[in-house]
Design a protein that fits this description.
Elements lengths: L1 E3 L3 E4 L6 E3 L12 E8 L2 E7 L7 E7 L4 E7 L6 E4 L3 E5 L3 E5 L5 E5 L10 E3 L4 E6 L2 E6 L8 E4 L3 E3 L2 E2 L6 E3 L2 E5 L4 E6 L5 E6 L14 E4 L5 E5 L3 E6 L5 E6 L14 E4 L3 E6 L2 E6 L2
Antiparallel strand pairs: 1-2, 2-3, 4-5, 5-6, 6-7, 8-9, 9-10, 10-11, 12-13, 13-14, 14-15, 16-17, 18-19, 19-20, 20-21, 22-23, 23-24, 24-25, 26-27, 27-28
Organism: Streptomyces himastatinicus ATCC 53653
Protein name: Putative LigA
Pfam family, one: PQQ_2
């Protein structure tokens, strides 16, 4: 389990013991850690600052098993989000830049119409970038750049003839899931945008749920989708959108009575919900 912060470390998830905490990536080290971009198997890709060079920001692929750098490539400042795809690591700043996963060579730099800073983005393994553009969910061909190859509008309205905005998309396998601000949950083909199902869920506690778009989470098995907002968590069957259960509690109000958003982590069998100072473990079925 990787834990990024002011430094980066790998912990044993069973004991919490630190298994890897390299000196060179610490603050004040030879290559201070800046951002964790991606991880897969025993390899991590990180942005770091290399002291004493003309190009101070670098992208490093690091083999955790062998404890060594696989390759290093110059990286412009401001590129601090990464999306791992089949052959490349795509790094996001004002534009999108792709690096060969094996050798670190820069493949291309592209932009995508409407995908500006702050827009929630996800990718699938086949070469599609999915972005929430206000009330549209858009899919882009990563290799081509430019405008979207498919667009799907939100299902719910927040006011008369005004569609709700989408929250961050989540990809599992070849399906992208996203929730809009009117509590519509969407399951689409990540490659083509074909609708697999769309459901609107009227919330029991909608009046208290706040203006923020609900979060979407998918279980590791891909069988369950969770929609969570400031007061409620809903478990949904990923196959057909059937509502399995709803959970709410009294929560904990913060400053000025604002209720903190429920935070969710999933295993194949359990949903762990953090609500204020309380933690709940709920069976997914």
């Amino acid at each position: 389990m990787l834990v990024p912060g002011t430094r980066i470390a790998a912990l044993d998830p069973r004991t919490g013991d630190i298994e890897w905490e390299p000196e060179e990536f610490r603050s004040g080290g030879r290559t201070p850690y800046a951002a964790l971009l991606a991880a897969e198997g025993g390899t991590v890709w990180i942005a770091a600052e290399r002291r004493g060079g003309a190009d101070s920001r670098v992208l490093i692929a690091y083999d955790l098993t062998r404890g060594k750098e696989l390759w290093t490539s110059p990286l412009p400042d401001g590129f601090d989000q990464g999306y791992l795809m089949k052959d490349v690591l795509v790094v996001r700043g004002n534009e999108f830049m792709a690096f060969d996963r094996t050798h670190g060579a820069r493949r291309w730099t592209r932009s995508y119409k409407g995908v500006t800073a702050g827009r929630p983005v996800a990718t699938d393994s086949g070469g599609t970038l999915i972005a929430s553009i206000s009330s549209d969910l858009c899919g882009y061909d990563v290799a081509r750049g430019g405008g979207p190859s498919w667009t799907v509008p939100a299902k719910g309205e927040v006011s008369y003839k005004h569609l709700a905005d989408f929250g961050p998309p989540v990809v599992h396998g070849d399906t992208v899931y996203a929730t809009d601000g009117a509590y519509g949950v969407h399951a689409l083909s990540a490659r083509t945008g074909a609708v697999r199902w769309q459901r609107l869920y009227g919330l029991v506690t909608k009046a208290l749920s706040g203006a923020r778009t609900p979060d979407t989470t998918v279980s590791p098995s891909g069988h369950t989708v969770l929609m969570s907002n400031d007061v409620e968590v809903d478990a949904i069957d990923a196959e057909d959108g059937t509502l399995r259960w709803r959970f709410t509690d009294s929560g904990a109000a913060g400053a000025k009575g604002i209720v903190a958003r429920r935070r969710v982590a999933l295993t194949d069998d359990l949903a762990v919900v953090i609500s204020g100072k309380s933690v709940y473990a709920l069976p997914l079925r």
